[in-house]
Amino acid sequence: MEDAFRTLIEQCGEDLERESLKKTPKRAAEAFAFLTSGYGQSLDEIVNGALFPAETNGMVIVKDIECYSLCEHHLLPFVGKVHVGYVPDKHIIGLSKIARVVDMFARRLQVQERLGQQICDALESVLKPKGIGVMIESEHFCMMMRGVEKQHSKAVTSHLKGLVKEDPRTRDEFLRLIGS
Prior knowledge:
Layout: H1 2-11, H2 24-35, H3 43-47, E1 51-53, E2 60-71, E3 77-87, E4 91-93, H4 95-106, E5 109-110, H5 112-127, E6 131-140, H6 141-144, E7 155-162, H7 163-166, H8 168-177
Parallel strand pairs: 2-5
Antiparallel strand pairs: 1-4, 2-3, 3-6, 6-7
Helix pairs in contact: 1-2, 4-5
């Protein structure tokens, strides 16, 4: 990957012998490897057995999970917050595992719409909850830095299943608790 960044920098017209650019291909390759490290992770590895008996049927919410991903269309970042809520059936999951699932999928080339669906489907498959909701609010650098150049726009997507989708009261509770 280092060679690819070297070529890219040269194609921009830069001099790789310039002191501040000498190590840039290596640093860029390392950064890109980290930003796409989600491809090397699995859901089983992330969850690592952190399921516990549910002693509640109240909604569990983790909101404002910071999310950093790369748009697969332009390789530019999109950044925002992910909100996850679920109504347990038989199990709850360690709260940090929810954030780790978000990171696993965010650290792949993405579109926001698929990212939310992947998070929702993955957590549903592990937890088998009565209902689950995932909402993402993001700012996309491909819209901010180029193209339409709208610096203050946000994209909002939601993915709902089970009670969170079918029961208006449960859906309203989810939306109210995440502050939407």
